[in-house]
Amino acid sequence: MQDQILGAAGVERDRPCEFVLGLGAAVDYLQTIGMDKVAAWEHELHDYMVAQLGAIDGMRLYGEARDKASVQSFLLDDIHSHDLGTILDHQGVAIRTGHHCAMPVMQFFGIPGTARASLAPRPSRPERARAW
Questions:
Q1: In whole angstroms, what is the distance from residue 57 CA to residue 123 CA?
Q2: Are residues 51 and 67 in the same domain?
Q3: Catalytic residue among 101, 108, 125, 126
């Protein structure tokens, strides 16, 4: 199991301690900021993302639970999610596309997949504005 996790993370199997040290540094960084501030920042990012995406004609948003992380699934008109991902990639914006290991949900909505943007406290407003 450990080999599968470390291999999937792109970590060389003979140096797993670097992965652990990096994770530890990330946790330390977030704790320095304060998890309550990180959560508030994520909610602000999500609200901004939903407002920007919702203003686009033909945009359909999926997953509108309250108090969710700054992750949003969406489709634009009849553009396949993979095509949308490629278009945004050419503009320097990285998103996830496909069924996101949630095929029953996609079947429920009658769609093959979605595009999904995941924001973190890192991007500034100008960086986020490039995405939409």
A1: 25
A2: yes
A3: 101
